[in-house]
Design goal:
Dihydrodipicolinate Reductase, domain 2, binds N-acetyl-L-glutamyl 5-phosphate, 2 domains, Rossmann fold, NAD(P)-bd_dom_sf, 14 strands, binds NADPH dihydro-nicotinamide-adenine-dinucleotide phosphate, NADP+ binding, 10 helices, seven-stranded mixed sheet, alpha/beta
Length: 348
């Protein structure tokens, strides 16, 4: 298969879902990627993706195909990269099938199928075993992972773990060893996906904690930070975005200047993380690829406020950011406007 670096052919599974549709939108406007196949589940019939999401003005050639394994041999010849925005179980089945059909594919998996490195923690959190792959799957918290560009599969982090880890990771050396960070986060209903259920029905949702003490993102955040955390998600009555309020104790000699310095050090070259002078609102980040972070310190009591769009920095935009890193492109390509090339040249 010949692959032009300027036009890397991609398939998006789960394109009829919320994060899949965002992925297609982002890839479609990206100078280096080209969406050549989009799939829904096997239910239903083929239809233009534009019919499902008129607001995105998808081009007419993007026809949503119900996925069937008969399509596999042709697909793996046609594309270089596959994005999976599928339920965890569906990714678990599909990843080994795709790699068996073409070991040169690169798969960015938005589900939780490969995020946890500990098999027992995975089985406990998801209720099924993780498939064994020939190579380890890197956990792709984009600002903190280094991709070599030869990994067959990259696990895209969950939405809550993304916002929690981006806020806490730079500060870990400053936290008291006895401190267990407490993360309270509120998500909009798109976090639960497009399929309606009673608990996510707009008329039913007000503001409520869920998964208290049991949410599968608790071990994911703990893995990312390498320390235990208390995490409580809440569902709020707005469409998209997450605001997280995080509490931790610092060491005795830590100042707010130390906190801000640690953030500056970590995120100087991170165009998608914005350090804020006030707590970020959902409206500041909804429909953007940013993670906004604010810190307050009283004595040793640290309070962090952080926000992302769950479907973008928490899913599709982070996946595109990882694909950029994988193919040695600027992290924010296709996500933020780039200055025009000086001499009328083109992006490589
Ligand atoms: N929503 C969010 O904020 C975030 C979601 N994620 C993860 O991304 C993934 C997708 O989530 P989301 O966009 O919310 O989900 P949606 O429920 O909105 O969409 C799911 C998609 O998967 C398709 N699908 C379902 N079952 C199968 C199957 N067996 N084979 C092939 N396709 C299938 C659906 O097709 P059809 O339309 O035909 O049913 C649909 O396109 C999940 O793993 C989720 O955990 C990660 C971070 C944030
Ligand atoms: C509001 C809501 O329901 N949110 C989802 C999280 C979505 C996400 O990022 O998580 P995964 O990719 O791990 O599924 C939940 O709590 O299950």
């Amino acid at each position: 298969m010949v692959v032009s670096n300027a036009n890397i052919a991609c398939a998006v599974f789960g394109a009829s879902g919320y994060s899949g549709a965002e992925l297609v939108r982002l890839l479609n406007q990206h100078p280096n990627f080209n969406v050549s196949a989009v799939f829904s589940s096997s239910a239903g019939s083929a239809k233009p993706l534009a019919e499902l999401y008129p607001q995105y003005q998808f081009p007419g050639h993007l026809i949503l195909q119900p996925w069937h394994s008969d399509l596999l041999p042709q697909l793996v010849q046609q594309v270089r990269v596959v994005f999976l925005a599928l339920p965890h179980e569906a990714s678990t089945e599909l990843v080994p099938e795709l790699l068996a059909a073409n070991s040169e594919l690169t798969i960015f998996d938005l589900s939780g199928a490969f995020r946890l490195q500990d098999e027992t923690a995975h089985a406990q959190a998801y209720g099924f075993d993780q498939p064994k792959l020939a190579q380890p799957v890197p956990y792709g918290l984009a600002e903190w992972c280094q991709l070599q560009g030869n990994e067959p599969v990259v696990a895209v982090p969950g939405c809550y773990p993304t916002v929690a880890a981006l806020a806490l990771k730079p500060l870990l050396p400053l936290l008291s060893e006895q401190s267990t960070p407490i993360i309270n986060a509120v998500s909009g209903v798109s976090g639960a996906g497009r399929k309606a259920s009673l608990t996510t029905h707009f008329c039913e949702v007000s503001l409520q904690a869920y998964g208290v003490g049991t949410h599968r993102h608790t071990p994911e955040i703990a893995q990312s930070l390498q320390r235990p955390v208390v995490f409580t998600p809440h569902l709020g009555n707005f469409p998209r975005g997450i605001v997280a309020t995080i509490y931790a104790q610092t060491n005795a000699d830590v100042s707010l200047a130390d906190i801000n310095h640690a953030y500056q050090q970590a995120y100087t070259d991170a165009p998608l993380v914005r350090l804020r002078n006030q707590p970020p609102a959902i409206n500041d980040v909804a429909n953007t690829p940013f993670c906004d972070i604010y810190a307050h310190l009283s004595g040793t009591q640290l309070i962090l406020c952080a926000a992302i769009d769950n479907l973008l920095k928490g899913a599709a935009a982070q996946a595109v950011q990882l694909a950029n890193l994988y193919f040695a492109k600027p992290a924010s390509r296709g996500l933020l406007p780039e200055p025009a090339p000086a001499s009328g040249g083109q992006h490589e």
